[in-house]
Design a protein that fits this description.
With 333 residues, the chain is an alpha/beta fold. The protein is built from 9 helices and 13 strands. The protein has helices spanning 22-34, 50-61, 67-86, 102-111, 125-138, 179-190, 209-215, 222-238, 299-308, and strands at 13-17, 90-94, 117-122, 143-148, 165-169, 198-204, 247-254, 259-266, 270-274, 279-283, 288-295, 311-318, 324-331. The strands form 3 sheets. An 8-stranded mixed sheet has the order 1-4-3-2-5-6-13-12, sandwiched between helices. Strands 7-8-11 form a 3-stranded antiparallel sheet. Helix 5 (125-138) links the parallel strand 3 (117-122) and strand 4. The protein is globular and about 60 Å long. Bound molecules: S-adenosyl-L-homocysteine (SAH) and tryptophan.
């Protein structure tokens, strides 16, 4: 139940958690399933423990990783227009992280005088809690209803809309789903939208493979550390003995699928023990574990995905160099 407001900022925060313990259960299932396949694979959500979240923040500042700056540029130029078109009183954000760019939108909605509630959803508990605390301070009168959960499983725990709503899915995170799950995810999002509501979706665009590969393989090696962090998470949560230094970071653009693939490649043949699962995992020298894809879009591809989810494009907004797109969409009429 929402707590009664007393006018104190503390009282305008509500946080629900849907993970309690199921976080490591889902890691165990994903590891068991993904590391026993002929082509080893893990879903990307396990990168983001608190160390992973810090590394991701550093990635966003890297000279090679243009996406965050490009998306911010679009938001800064178009947030006012988005606020006007949507008249939103609430902003739902999936995979909200530190909500850094979100403030540009909140500023615009707040200036337009419509903003009432912010609903961040993320798997990383510490980020939902700290961003909620910061935002109620920064935006007097704003109520924050944080949801700690998995956006593939817990969208139904997003509270019903109290007014016109925008669901934001920024940072190109939709690109981290393989095509089938991507459409499933978009259908799930579409179910959160009433006739008056909008989706604001950030997607990276197809471009020169050298630019793309550099963005996922920076000179400083921060992305490599981020990629290897998943092994540290498995060591800690499942009592395993991977040596992250045994794995090389690989990022290549697959031109056929138009996605970046992130992999960890074993530098030598090895056997790791995962005590919590009572299993050994063998890697041959050079064998790869796929840890993430990051799909790159064109306007046509995105419109197809939206249509399949019952959504139609309202605005296609790009940065000056056409590197990144923010799409405003709504339920098809
Ligand atoms: N929106 C931010 C962060 C993007 S990074 C930005 O644009 O910079 C991806 C975010 O999604 C991280 O905060 C991560 O914790 C979260 N995330 C990843 N997989 C998730 C899942 N399955 N469910 C919920 N959140 C997830
Ligand atoms: N959504 C981000 C993207 O696809 C996530 C990301 C950026 C990422 N750099 C990464 C994930 C490196 C794994 C490794 O761009």
């Amino acid at each position: 139940m929402p707590r009664a407001g007393t006018g104190l900022t503390r009282e305008s925060i509500r946080i629900d958690s849907h993970l309690d313990g199921s976080g490591s259960r889902s890691l165990a299932e994903d590891v068991l399933d993904g590391l026993t396949r002929p082509f080893k694979e893990l879903p990307p959500k396990h990168f983001y423990d608190s160390h992973g979240a810090e590394l991701f923040d550093r990635i966003c500042e890297l000279p090679e990783y243009y996406q965050t700056r490009a998306e911010r540029e679009i938001l800064e130029q178009r947030a006012e227009e988005i606020a006007e078109l949507t008249g939103a009183s609430e902003l739902v954000e999936l995979g909200s992280g530190t909500a850094a760019k979100t403030r540009v939108l909140l500023d615009a909605l707040s200036s337009a005088g419509t903003l009432e509630r912010y609903i961040p959803l993320d798997v990383t508990e510490s980020m939902v809690r700290s961003s909620a605390r910061a935002l109620v301070e920064e935006y007097p009168g704003l109520s924050v209803h944080g949801v700690i959960g998995d956006f593939e499983r817990h969208l139904e725990h997003i509270p019903p809309a109290l007014g016109p709503r925008v669901v934001a899915f920024l940072g190109g995170t939709i690109g981290n789903f393989p095509p089938g799950s991507r459409r499933r995810m978009l259908r799930g999002i579409a179910r959160l939208l009433g006739a008056e509501d909008h989706l604001l979706l950030g997607t990276d665009l197809v471009k020169d493979p050298r630019v793309l590969e550099a963005a996922y393989n920076d000179a400083e090696g921060v992305t490599a550390e981020f990629n290897r962090n998943v092994l540290r998470v498995i060591n800690r949560e499942l009592d395993a003995d991977f040596d992250p230094a045994d794995f090389e970071h690989v990022a290549i653009f697959d031109e056929h699928h138009e996605w970046i693939e992130m992999r960890l490649r074993a530098r030598r043949g090895l056997v790791a023990t995962i005590a919590a699962l009572e299993m050994d995992v063998r890697f041959d020298a050079g064998e790869e574990l796929r840890t993430e894809i990051s799909a790159k879009f064109t306007r046509e591809r995105l419109q197809g995905d939206l249509a399949a989810a019952g959504l139609e494009l309202v605005r296609w907004l790009t940065d000056a160099e056409q590197r990144f797109a923010l799409t405003l969409a709504r339920p098809s009429s």
